[in-house]
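Format notes (please read before filing issues)

Several people have asked whether sequences and structure tokens are stored in separate files. They are not. Every record keeps both together, in the order shown below: the sequence lines, then the token lines. Line labels are part of the format and must not be stripped during preprocessing.
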Amino acid sequence: MHNQLAPRFVLAHNAREIPSGQIPIARRHHSFNELIGSGTSSLGPPSPTELEVALLGVFESIGLPFPTQSENLISRISTLSKYIRTLVDTVDRERAARTKAEATLAEEREKAEATLAEERANHARLLQEIRKECQEPFVVPALLDAFIALSETVDSISRVTDKTS
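Then the structure lines:
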């Protein structure tokens, strides 16, 4: 038995545009080296045996038994078409969920950055006020705590007046 490369399958690029029941499940890509290596003398379509082997791989990969001569191949094609549609629907749902999650994440990031910027501004202003008060030789810790509490009270009052105006 000669060494034969496993066939490679891809969905047709226009599979969504083909009417139901006529969707090509997969197309086999040939390379010149594969044709030479397999001993095929013509560049024509693969033999029925090669197609059966290739289709057997497709059916096994999605968990369906390979149909025998007596089974209706059209029903298998219909089953495969439904399976492909199910996969496409799943991908579409997951893509929509990912897009929604990314939008939510971006919104939360913007809110967090705004909150962080506000906190930084408040801390910078508080440090500036402390430096102004510390120009004296020293600050008593109790006075510093009182000053911070007073500064926070003034901030909260100014926020309330900003929101009401």
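For reference, the curators noted about this record: The radius of gyration is 35 Å. The longest helix spans residues 73-133.
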